[in-house]
User: Fold this.
Amino acid sequence: MSTLLTALAAAGPLAAGWSVHSLWLRRSLRSARRDPLTGLHTRDGFTRRASTLLKDSRAVVVLADVDRFKQINDNYGHAAGDALLRATADRLAHYVGRAGVAGRLGGDEFAAVVIDAHGTVADLLAVLHGVLARPADGMDPAVHTTVSLGWVRAADHPGEDLSGLLRRADEAMYAAKQGRAGVRRAGLGRLLATWSGRRAGRRGTALAGPRDAA
Assistant:
């Protein structure tokens, strides 16, 4: 009996140390899936959550791109550009809420997946477009721009994965940017790349890869 008690006593510190290590690993993993500037999901974290949401037939994929972002950096400095990105991320996350997911794909490009429970996503995105155009809080009112949005319903393209839907949303977003329309829905047919000049799968929209597919 004394031998058993001795063994348990010796194992106690080891178990406690492992628990602390496991907690540290979980926190590190969560941090790795968050963009340090905006706090949104990184590509990996976004992909995992978005892929789950796409099992719902009401899911909508949205791609957002800040207009004239390079001019903001050039004219007002990178600190102003960072503030604009943070404001965009905060407003997008507020729109998406807990039921959806928002992520920063890189640079000034963001993505989201939302569940359109009431069929009002087009109206809500039009409102969001106006909200995203507001100057960042506490910044010079001159430091602002618009954000072009493209979106696609997953149900319109059954069997298509996240990468394919993001490409469609990307094409719609680019068409909105070119036409200064603000928001555009992806067409129900093939991709718009043949007439818009946008390459399907350009950097930032393709999510293929063994890690992302998990």
